[in-house]
Amino acid sequence: MADTLTVHRAGLATVQDLGRFGRSRYGLPVNGALDQHSARVANVLCGNDEGAPLIEITALDFSCTPSTDVLMAVTGAPADLTVDGVARPQWEPVSVRSGQTIRITGIRVGIRVYLAVLGSVDAPWLQGSCAPDTILGFGRALRDGDEVGLRTHCPPIDHPHFRIPLFRLHAPVRRFHAAWTIDVTDGPDRTEFGDTAERLFRSPYTVSPQSNHIGLRLRGDVPRRVATGEVLSRGVPVGAVEVPAGDELLVLHRGRGVTAGYPVLAVVTATGLSALGQAGPGQAVRFRHRTIAEAVTAYRSQRNAVNALKARVRSAFEALRIPVPLSP
Amino acid sequence: MPETGGMPETDSGVVIVDCGDSAVMARAMGSDAEHNWRLVHTLADAIDSVRLDGVHGIVPTYDALLVEFDCAGTDQHTVRRVLRHEADRLGKGPLHTATARHFVVPVVYGGEHGPDLPVVAEQLGITEQEVVELHSGSDLTVRCLGAPAGAPMMDGPAFPGPVPRLASPRTRVLPGSIAVAGRQAVICPMPSPGGWPLLGRTPLRVLDFAADPMTPYRPGDTFRFQPITPDQWDDHAGLSLAVSHG
Description:
Helices cover 15% and strands 27% of the residues of chain A. By secondary structure, chain A is an alpha+beta fold. Chain A has 2 domains: 4-174 and 304-319, no CATH class; 179-290, Cyclophilin (Beta Barrel). In chain A, the strands form 4 sheets. A 7-stranded mixed beta barrel of chain A has the order 12-19-16-17-14-13-20. In chain A, strands 7-6-9-4-1-11 form a 6-stranded antiparallel β-sheet, with no helix packed on it. Chain B has 2 domains: 14-92, Gyrase A, domain 2, CATH 3.30.1360.40; 102-244, Cyclophilin-like (Cyclophilin), CATH 2.40.100. In chain B, helix 1 (33-50) crosses helix 2. Chain B: This is Allophanate hydrolase subunit 1.
C-alpha cells in the first residue's frame, strides 16, 4: 500500500504547482500558486524542486495525517500550525511522524498557506502541470476524507522529547500587512487615461469579495479612460490593471484569459503579484509606482534569496543525512 | 540603451512596448490588417523556434504579439533585441504561410442552442434564415486562439453590420456554443461566462485533452459551419472536432 496523506478537513485546498508554462499560445493561462514566493520557499525548505506539486490552502482551516514519517514545510499567511496539538513553526522544515495530525487553523492577515512535503505529493497532470484550471475543469480540489499519495518518506529527525529546533534556515519570510503596498509599472496604454491615471496612486483600494485567481476586483477612486474607440483583442500580461466598467479596477492574476480587449493602465510587478496573491476580501491595497529596472531588481533579489536558501537547505540536509529527493 | 514604451518602429513596421517587468508586446503598425496578422504570427513562430531562455509564453493575436518571460532568467533588453532582430529579418523577405486546414463544423442554429438568433437577426435587419445562411455560407478564418480555453477567434461572416454584445453577459455559456460579436465569430470550447450573442451550438467536442496542444486548429485554418437539425445532434454528439477536417 502506497503511503498517503489523509485529509480530514479540506476547507479550500488544492494540489498546486508554479503553473502551466508555455501554453498561452494555445489559449491556456499559466495559473499556478498565487503567492509564488511562498510556494517556492515551502518546496525549497523540503529539499524539493521549486515547482514540485504542493498543497495550496486558501483561508479555511485544514488538517491531515500522513501514513508514514514525513518532513514538511508550511509557508504563506500567518496561521496556527500544530502537529498532534504541539505548536510548530512556519517557514522551517518540520518532521511529522506517521499517524500524527497536522492542523493549520486561524489563517490571518493573508489568505494563502502552502504545505509542501519532502518528495512531493501525487498530482493529476495536464499539459505539463498539475495547476488547477477552472475553465478547463481541471485540477484536484481536496475534499474531506481524500487521500493524497506521498512519493517518499523521511525518517524522523527532530528530538523526540525536547523539541530542540533542528533547523534555523532563515527562510526569506514574506511580510504580511493588513494594508498591502503593491508595486506596478506603467502599462502600455497609460496615456489613454490622461490625467486620471494618477488616481491609481492617490488613495487606497479595497479588495472586493468577487476576487479570485482569475483577477482581483478593487473598489475605490478609479481612473477613467479618456480615449475612445475599440481595442482589438490581444494578449494581456498577468498583472494587467484594467478599468472595464463601473467603479472597480480589475487586476488580472495567473488564471486570466490570455486575450482581452481593454486598455492596460498599469502592470503589477512580479513581486507585487505574489503579494497580491495574499490580499483577501476587505483588505486595503495601495499601489506604488516603480520603474521596470526597480521591479526587476526587486524580483531578482527575492529569487536570489530563495536560491541562497536552497544552498543552506542542502548543507543542513547533508549534515542531518536527510535523503534529498531527485527531481522528477 | 534601455528602451521605454512607444519607441520608433523597426524597418518592418513593428513597435515594441513594455508590458510590465515580465512581458513585452510587439505591435505591427502597417495599414494592411492581413499583413499585420501574418507578420505577428510569423514573428511568434520565429520567437518560438529561437527558444530563448526564460521566455515562457507567447500570444500572437491580430496585430500584436505578447511575449512573457521570467525576468530573473532574462530581461527586457534581451527579449526586445531578439524580437527586433527577427522582425527586421522578416520585414525583408516574404512571410511564411503555414498550410491551412479546413474544418467542417455541424451546428444546430436557433432554439435552445442559439437563443440570441432572433435578436441578432432583428439588430442586423435581416431574417433568422439569412443570418444562418451568411454564417454558414462562407469559410471563416481562424485569426488567433484566445480566451477562454483556446477558443478559435474568427473573422465574422459578411453580416450587414457589427453585432452588439449582450447588455448583460451570461454567467455560463455551454461548450460548443457558436457566438458572434462585432465583426468576429467564435466557438466556446468550455463552459464559461460570456457576453457574445449565441447563434447555435455544435455537438462536437472542441478540445482534445489527451493531445498537446489540446486545440486541433491553428491560426490560418478555416471553419465552415454546416446547419443540422436538432434531431441530427446525436449523430455528432461527442465526436472530436479534430476529425472534422478535410
